[in-house]
């Protein structure tokens, strides 16, 4: 059987140090030993130092069954532990292995059970830890702010663990760290308030801190112990992400040596799935702590993370209450629905107070309203245009305009902004000026990793290094962003109401003007048509008298001219009468009543009986329904349609007009309306091209010249207006040389029973 170690010997360089595979180092720290078991209980991995703890070498262990090496009792205890409800990362298994007592942490790494054994600690320590934890919980209730709680946790963790220095380390958005609270020996230089660059803890290390929330280094000067395995697969390895003994990156070890640290304990602080910070414990000589003490220290971290939201809320509660009061005050003001109300809004001090801004601007209809410390108008327009190009929704916030928009880097008066769209090109923007701040770094953040003639190593200078930060505003708090969003939403609705109110007023004025104009037109039309009737009647009388005299001499050349004058006057009188009829039709739907269309047809047929007889026409009419309509208008409509069919009869055949109708109410839908009855007039006349099916209903529209067919061109337009006034509709179909059909549709009546 071949045996090999799995030590990762890949070189770390400046280009790959942030990708160092720290989860598969292939080696552990020496204060314990490691076994890796397959699902069949075969020992597949074993560290070189097992012989330091028990009378067994890694060569003797590898490839053998766990039971054959450690006995059935040990396997039974391990099996029951693995399959129990015990929280295995909290309570290690206490077990005897070859007559030695160990505390064993067990976790699953893919298909391998990883056992990490350490000699059992004194049980007396557990009682002391319990007492200290109870005392801490009692003191915790007396703190109010998050900073006070973190200071208490730092002090309590140091008392429980005995480390020389305990720091609460908090990350910002870019994972730069700040020592937020600290407890240390009086002879040590404090690190409180120092900042550390994000490069001190690379991405893969942060990911491991999320997966494995406790990290222990007992002796920074340890000699790593290799892990051996049976050489039966290519590139065989073991993921130690959840390991408590995992060996640390050599760069991190050197980093700690440069700080003079001898041992460390690191506890992850997770908040909403993100690494919020760390409890970093440093000792200046080697130091190990029992699982019970580790658990107590881990609980300290749980105390912090469970209180973050509550304590941050308490810290912000007073300021948040002020912004809420400002928001409530400004939204309670009853402003008129007019554009000039923005002049009142922009001057309200609460508009700035609701998000603690230094200035605010509102752009509406290309006019800018401003208050407080704001940029010049062209900078406002430029910023809004850039935001519109980049934003994915109606909201944008920044505290560093220069970084986000280099085009505006030198723009004065604002570094932070909250932008909300108000629809279209309208918007509201709150501004904050630049806040120059000092950050005390633990060494130059640009020199976190150094390369010199000796190779790649972390920085060895941690002297305080002051950085002046410019171009940033103070941070917009969540409650400030919420208040701004709520007011922007309220203002957006108010602007919509202003626009609707203006539209309503515009339409009201237009309606009044239209009503007055229509009334004037009706009067003018009635007067003009009435006054024209008299001179036309006189023209006809004079021409008739002259014609009577002239006809005594049949050869008089003026007879033809006089006849044309008489016919023109007659057509003009007919046109004026049709115009009067057309203009007098209004919306008569409210005055409609039940009428029998059969009686309407009989009356219309009788009135034009002479024309029917003259044309030798035949009219077939089936039973017609009762509808809601106005009697005299229906008679006018029937007359117009029948006379139209007789007028445009074919010279090749006698006119035949067929009138059909729906016998019961039925649903007839078009794009906008629903109808219940229809009546169809079909003839065999000259017809028309279907392309004119809409235009034949327009006033004065004629498809033939006056010499071919007489008429005013208003007849079908009058029919359409009659049907529209009743809430109905009319349509036409035609084929040249075959005939035409006109269909009228009547609206539903409340008494109709639909089929």
Automatic annotation (TrEMBL):
It catalyses: ATP + protein L-histidine = ADP + protein N-phospho-L-histidine. CDD domains: HisKA. Residues 527-750 form the Histidine kinase domain. It comes from the Bacteria. The keyword Phosphoprotein applies. Its EC number is 2.7.13.3. It is an enzyme of class 2 (transferase). The keyword Phosphoprotein applies. Residues 145-302 form the Phytochrome chromophore attachment site domain. Keywords: Chromophore, Kinase, Phosphoprotein, Photoreceptor protein, Receptor, Sensory transduction, Transferase. It holds the Pfam family HATPase_c. In the N-terminal section; belongs to the phytochrome family. This is histidine kinase. It comes from Flavobacterium endoglycinae.
């Amino acid at each position: 059987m071949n045996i090999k170690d799995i030590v990762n010997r890949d070189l770390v360089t400046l280009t790959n140090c942030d990708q160092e595979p720290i989860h598969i180092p292939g080696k552990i720290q020496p204060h314990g030993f490691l076994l890796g078991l397959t699902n069949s209980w075969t020992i597949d991995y074993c560290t070189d130092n097992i012989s330091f703890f028990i009378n067994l070498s890694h060569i003797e262990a590898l490839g053998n069954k766990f039971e054959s090496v450690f006995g059935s009792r040990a396997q039974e205890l391990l099996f029951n532990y693995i399959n129990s409800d015990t929280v295995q990362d909290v309570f290690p298994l206490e077990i005897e292995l070859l007559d030695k007592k160990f505390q064993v942490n067990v976790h699953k790494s893919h298909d391998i059970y990883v056992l990490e054994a350490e000699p059992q600690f004194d049980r007396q320590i557990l009682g002391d830890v319990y007492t200290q934890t109870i005392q801490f919980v009692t003191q915790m209730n007396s703190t109010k702010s998050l900073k006070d709680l973190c200071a208490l946790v730092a002090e309590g963790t140091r008392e429980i663990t005995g480390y020389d220095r305990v720091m609460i380390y908090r990350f910002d958005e870019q994972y730069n760290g700040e020592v937020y609270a600290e407890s240390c020996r009086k002879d040590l230089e404090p690190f409180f308030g120092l900042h550390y660059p994000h490069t001190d803890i690379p991405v893969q290390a942060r990911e491991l801190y999320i997966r494995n929330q406790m990290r222990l280094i007992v002796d920074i000067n340890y000699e790593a112990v290799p892990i051996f395995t049976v050489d039966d697969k290519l590139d065989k390895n073991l993921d130690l992400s959840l390991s408590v003994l995992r060996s640390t990156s050599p760069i991190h070890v050197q980093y700690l040596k440069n700080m003079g640290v001898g041992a460390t304990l690191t506890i992850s602080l997770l908040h909403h799935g993100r690494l919020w910070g760390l409890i970093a414990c440093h000792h200046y000589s080697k130091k190990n702590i029992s699982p019970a003490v580790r658990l107590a220290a881990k609980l300290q971290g749980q105390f912090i993370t469970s209180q973050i939201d509550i304590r941050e809320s308490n810290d912000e509660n007073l300021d948040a209450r002020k912004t809420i009061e400002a928001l409530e005050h400004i939204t309670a003001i009853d402003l008129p629905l007019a554009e000039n109300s923005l002049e009142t809004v922009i001057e309200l001090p609460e508009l700035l107070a609701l998000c603690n801004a230094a200035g605010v601007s509102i752009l509406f209809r290309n006019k800018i309203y401003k208050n407080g410390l704001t940029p010049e108008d062209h900078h406002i327009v430029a910023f809004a245009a850039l935001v519109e190009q980049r934003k994915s929704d109606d909201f944008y916030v920044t505290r560093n305009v220069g970084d986000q928009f280099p085009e505006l880097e030198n723009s004065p008066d604002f570094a932070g902004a909250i932008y909300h769209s108000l629809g279209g090109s309208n918007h509201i923007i709150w501004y904050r000026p630049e806040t120059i701040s000092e950050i005390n770094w633990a060494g130059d953040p640009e020199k976190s990793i150094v390369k010199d003639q000796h190779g790649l190593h972390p920085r060895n200078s941690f002297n305080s290094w002051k950085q002046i930060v410019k171009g940033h505003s103070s941070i917009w708090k969540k409650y400030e962003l919420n208040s701004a969003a709520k007011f922007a939403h309220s203002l957006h609705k108010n602007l919509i109401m202003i626009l609707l109110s203006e539209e309503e007023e515009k339409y009201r004025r237009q309606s009044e003007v239209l009503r007055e104009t229509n009334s004037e037109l009706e009067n003018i039309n009635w007067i003009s048509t009435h006054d024209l009737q008299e001179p036309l009647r006189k023209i006809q009388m004079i021409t008739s008298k002259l014609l009577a005299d002239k006809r005594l001499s049949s050869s008089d050349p003026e007879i033809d001219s006089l006849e044309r004058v008489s016919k023109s006057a007659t057509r003009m009188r007919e046109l004026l009468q049709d115009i009067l009829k057309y203009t007098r039709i209004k919306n008569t739907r409210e005055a409609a009543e039940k009428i029998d269309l059969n009686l309407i047809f009989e009356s219309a047929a009788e009135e034009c009986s002479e024309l029917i007889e003259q044309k030798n026409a035949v009219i077939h009419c089936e039973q017609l329904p009762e509808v809601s309509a106005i009697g005299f208008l229906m008679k006018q409509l029937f007359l117009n349609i029948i006379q139209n069919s007789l007028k445009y009869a074919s010279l090749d055949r006698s006119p035949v007009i067929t009138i059909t109708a729906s016998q019961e109410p039925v649903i007839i839908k078009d794009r906008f309306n629903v109808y219940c009855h229809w009546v169809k007039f079909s003839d065999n006349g000259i017809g028309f091209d279907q392309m004119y099916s809409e235009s034949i209903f327009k006033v004065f529209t004629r498809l033939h010249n006056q010499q071919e067919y007489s008429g005013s061109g208003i007849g079908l337009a009058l029919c359409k207006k009659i049907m529209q006034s009743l809430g109905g509709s009319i349509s036409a179909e035609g084929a040249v040389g075959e005939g035409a059909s006109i269909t009228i549709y009547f609206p539903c009546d409340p008494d109709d029973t639909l089929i």
